[in-house]
Design goal:
This protein is of the alpha/beta class. It has ten helices and 14 strands. It folds into two domains: 125 residues, Rossmann fold (3-Layer(aba) Sandwich); 151 residues, Rossmann fold, CATH 3.40.50.261.
């Protein structure tokens, strides 16, 4: 599997170059500025029709991803394009040699997401999203729309289906002394380029990893599949979970497109039961996550 830490860190000698697709749009402009303020090395933007211009008088804008990749050698791209242009932009990036594609758009047609995931597989690339808040290694690189302040560097991996809960739980962890080696937003759509189990595979062998926090939510079976994998692999490092939507009514779509419960399928009860089988305690509220994590770490 492509090593996400190597992509984000490189050899440590300099910050990894990142390209922004849709850099001149309102959303792209705002978040590109915030990423640059954080210290992320934004080396190019791509907006068809705006090639040759400069973003903030410093970042060159190209017509195509091929031009941007050829000019910068970047292997990472973040995408701020309307959902209807998602598939074309994803193919443009992956065919140009991008190995880590962070797909921010929501309401992407399921068929388009599936086609993009297929291209990513063929190219041995990681696609995170669509509808992801992004990925970051705190105090090193932020590629996404998450606020910077909740996160501090450390050795806990946080994998989340929810954006806002990722921020809240990140903040709870940081203020309790649990910094993060990576925080990754899976995205709230029914189809994800990086599933919970894929994210687990990416982080489980990280040498300094001390524990994992999973922020799940009702709908689908990602959490159950994750818990089964933890059991099958006999993974011994502490894992703590939180499941959003415990009180949600059945068969009613809640917020995220993937958050719908049919019968017991996708229910909070189903997820909590599987987590319990995998010896993963589930917090009743976000503030409880660091308390449970501390408890698990003491028992190691």
């Amino acid at each position: 599997m492509t090593d996400i830490f190597k992509l984000l860190k490189g050899d440590g000698s300099e910050k990894q170059p990142v390209i922004v697709q849709g850099i001149t749009g309102k959303f792209g402009t705002r978040h590109t500025k915030l990423m640059m303020e954080y210290g992320t090395n934004i080396v190019a933007g791509v907006t068809p029709g705006k090639g040759g211009q400069k973003f903030e008088n410093s970042v060159p804008i190209y017509e195509t991803m091929k031009e941007a990749v050829d000019a910068t050698g970047s292997k990472i791209s973040i995408m701020f394009v309307p959902a209807k242009f998602f598939l074309g932009a994803a193919k443009d990036a992956l065919e140009a040699g991008i190995k880590l594609l962070i797909a921010i758009p929501e309401h992407v047609p399921v068929q388009d997401a599936m086609k993009a995931i297929e291209v990513a597989k063929q190219k041995n690339a990681i696609m995170i999203g669509p509808n992801t808040p992004g990925v970051m290694i705190p105090e090193l690189i932020k590629i996404g729309i998450m606020p910077a302040s909740p996160f501090k560097f450390g050795n806990i991996a946080v994998l989340s289906k929810s954006g806002t809960l990722l921020y809240e739980i990140g903040n709870n962890l940081s203020t309790s002394g649990f910094g993060q080696c990576i925080t990754l937003g899976i995205g709230g759509d029914p189809i994800n380029g990086t599933r919970l189990i894929d994210a687990f595979d990416m982080v489980k062998d990280y040498p300094d990893l001390e524990g994992i926090v999973v922020v799940g939510e009702i709908g689908g079976e990602a959490e159950e599949v994750f818990a089964q994998k933890v059991i099958d692999e006999n993974f011994k490092k502490p894992i703590v979970a939180y499941v959003a939507g415990r009180k949600a009514p059945k068969e009613k779509r809640m917020g995220h497109a993937g958050a719908i419960v049919m019968g017991n399928y996708g229910s909070a009860e189903s997820k909590i039961e599987m987590f319990s089988k995998a010896n993963i305690p589930v917090a009743k509220r976000p503030a409880e996550v660091p308390i449970l994590l501390a408890g698990k770490m003491e028992k190691k």
